[in-house]
Amino acid sequence: MGQARAKEKTKVFFQxxxxxxxxxxxxxxxxxxxxxxxxxxxxxxxLSTDYRYHQRGVVQVCINEDTASIADAKKLADETCRPxxxxxxxxxxxxxxxxxxxxxxxxxxCVARPxxxxxxxxxxxSPMRHDPSLGAQ
Length: 137
Hints:
Layout: H1 2-14, H2 22-39, E1 46-47, H3 51-54, E2 58-63, H4 70-81, E3 87-94, E4 104-111
Antiparallel strand pairs: 1-2, 2-4, 3-4
């Protein structure tokens, strides 16, 4: 009789209640809600580089491909290259390199427009003495 009672206790101990699965489905619902909310917060294209890179002809733009296109990134890169009398040329597309709301990194090079010869990039307009060096290009 002692063995039968031990088996009963074991059965009760391992019995799974329907409420056991409730926390998992609750977490799933929370994750789905968070994903929907983040999708609604898509960011506009933005520059991920600063003036020191722009003066060397490098422009990187972060975009969300669901709400913006590569053409939108190119417009922003063209605006950035314009003060240097250049236009942007697509160099690289890397996904999942920026923020969650704008995950795609699009890299451009500032190049001369066809038929034009702009002056070289001015190194003396580069960073101040206390700024870290960018290294040779």
